[in-house]
């Protein structure tokens, strides 16, 4: 049996967290979703530091990353992820309300895998997250942790 990999959701808005989790549940994604509130906490989780130092080894199958977060925003978190040899192969999807062209360009220059703008309507948001989660958690193939 294949072990389901974790999805890391870095989001500080409680409503967006709830909607994202609901959308994934509606799509019957059985992957565990770990929610962190900012880029600092995301990096602690990924690097197994702080309160995550005892978590099981292994990278998530995808990181869903908001841009506008306290302490460390999503762009800076992405910069840190892409500069870390142990983390740089993890797919990162920006899931944000920002339609700023600069954010889009900056994240792609840093190596983001996808940029999804949170739709205004509830139904559009649910559909966007369902498709995003299903692709990255179920369909996408990842190299194993630590190389071949």
What does this structure look like?
The protein has 148 residues and is of the alpha/beta class. The chain has one domain (7-138): 3-Layer(aba) Sandwich (Rossmann fold), CATH 3.40.50.2300. Helix content is 39%, strand content 14%. Strands 2-1-3-4-5 form a five-stranded parallel β-sheet, sandwiched between helices. It is globular, with a radius of gyration of 14 Å. The two termini are 20 Å apart. The model has no long low-confidence stretch (mean pLDDT 85).
Straight-line N-to-C gap = 20 Å
Strand content: 5-15%
What is the number of E strands? Answer: 5
| Morphology | globular
Question: What is the average of the pLDDT values?
Answer: 85
Proportion of residues in helical segments: 25-40%
**Gyration radius over CA:** 14 Å
Here the CATH topology equals Rossmann fold
State the CATH class. Alpha Beta
**Number of structurally distinct domains:** 1
CATH homologous group name: Response regulator
Order of strands, main sheet, comes to: 2-1-3-4-5
What's the story with the biggest beta sheet? 5 strands, parallel
Question: What class, by secondary structure content?
Answer: alpha/beta
Are there runs of 5+ residues with pLDDT below 50, and where?
none
Q: Architecture, according to CATH?
A: 3-Layer(aba) Sandwich
Tally of DSSP helical segments:
5
Order of helices and strands: EHEHEHEHEH
